[in-house]
Amino acid sequence: MQSSGVTGSIMFPIRYNLYPKLLPDFIFISETIVSEMALSLLLLMARLVEFNQQDAIRKAMEVFWKKGYNGASMRDLTDAMQINPSSLYNTIGDKRQLFIRCIDDYTQARAGALQTHASGFKSASKALISIINESVNSILYSSNSCLAIKTTFELAVTDKDVQAILKHESDLTYALFLSLVRRAIEEKEMPADTDAEMIADYILNAFTGWHQSYIVHQDAARVKKMAKFLIAQISS
Amino acid sequence: MQSSGVTGSIMFPIRYNLYPKLLPDFIFISETIVSEMALSLLLLMARLVEFNQQDAIRKAMEVFWKKGYNGASMRDLTDAMQINPSSLYNTIGDKRQLFIRCIDDYTQARAGALQTHASGFKSASKALISIINESVNSILYSSNSCLAIKTTFELAVTDKDVQAILKHESDLTYALFLSLVRRAIEEKEMPADTDAEMIADYILNAFTGWHQSYIVHQDAARVKKMAKFLIAQISS
DNA sequence: ATTATTCTGAAACGATCGTTTCAAATTTTG
DNA sequence: CAAAATTTGAAACGATCGTTTCAGAATAAT
């Protein structure tokens, strides 16, 4: 299929796989008609998809969260999503595509929640401190370790698409932290000579280590102490 | 099998799975004879194990390192180790046991190398700084991300044995860092009011975040800046 | 009501999973 | 050298892997 050169019409090839060749090789159809055909094709849905994709994605996400990508079987996933493999493959695609949807959903939800949380504070430094404390809470009181971190070490090293999604969320969070740090400096709640970019990065990456510490040692006090130190450090 | 109560002899049960019961249910054998039997059993090796277990463990470790526990198949592992599954199961055991041997070997080698590295410095603070810089190097120039971190997020959350091994290495490293920090304080290269325990933990956990940062952003400068900041921070 | 179309559920696909079996090869003991 | 013991290699084990097929149910247009 390609443009005919004549404005407003599109040239379609005609294939003769069964009947003898009685028609020309090509047919020209006006763009308006093609557009209407495409629209009617979209409207003609004999049966609506029954399951809620967003809900299903969330259910799948929790399975990946607990078991990791390689640890989760399609059986685990379709059981949790309460759909048939055929429905899954007809709508979302294969295991990898499902995972990409899950990690995408997860990171977007997190980035959105973070933005909302941060906008609830007038003081930039108080917003930062609250974010750090919230991060500690989620490390200590959430049953699963962060899906983004798990995914970084399981898949992002070898899967460039996954890495790009994680990088995108990281960039957003970094940008938010950076703007907060800059505002805090302006509001004289951080030293004027602070390297804003580096500190934003530094805060962002501290969380990962605390996560690991808590998994290995199961010691809340250790994590809380480190968070307190980081807060003191950036507030001085 | 249990002690007879009579000192120096052990009571063995006798099982009659084929022949009619013509003997007593138990037989008492002196400890000396049992000990000799065990020794001769050990010496009687009709054929020696051909492959070098340590080498094979190292090969397997690299596979787990690249693919993770769930991502590595027994086929991958035996191919890399260049041994037959039967040899593997006869000597080391199943997949999980093999992995435990690998992660154990890995953490012990790391802990040992760290001790050696640290002992090469007279100044405690210089040793710490060198360790931090070495860590940055391994993050930037090693093709695989740290096996201990990968394992923490893939298995340690659910597998208590794996967690214990990781905790053991972490404890050793923590103890080393702690002694270095304390010495640095004594040598007046760190502030006298430094919380040595917390700072040791803090340094230890910073590495993990840098690892994640480099996987996601592939930006060496960012990692180097954070390391420089941490060094400046503990040196002041 | 009929036709056209699409989603669903059950079953099955070949491939691979981790693991086991067993005869042959190999080595030491007596 | 023969007997005893154990590792090795090839093959196969049942189970599960991710994925596909397809008849039938469901729905919309004609």
Structural account:
The structure is a homodimer. The first copy, chain A, is mainly alpha-helical and about 240 residues long. The first copy, chain A, has two domains: about 1-45, no CATH class; about 105-235, Tetracycline Repressor, domain 2 (Orthogonal Bundle). Chain A is about 70% helix and about 5% strand. Chain A contains ten helices and three strands, in the order βββαααααααααα. Chain A has helices spanning about 30-45, 55-65, 75-80, 85-90, 95-120, 125-140, 145-155, 160-185, 195-215, 220-235, and strands at about 1-5, 10-15, 25-30. In chain A, strands 1-2-3 form a three-stranded antiparallel β-sheet. In chain A, strand 1 (about 1-5) and strand 2 form a beta hairpin. In chain A, helix 6 (about 125-140) crosses helix 8 (about 160-185). In chain A, about 30% of the residues are buried. The model of chain A is unreliable at about 1-5, about 10-25 and about 35-45 (pLDDT under 50). Chain A binds a DNA duplex (30 and 30 nucleotides) through helix 4.
What's the gist of this structure?
The first copy, chain A, is mainly α and 236 residues long. Chain A has ten helices and three strands, in the order E-E-E-H-H-H-H-H-H-H-H-H-H.
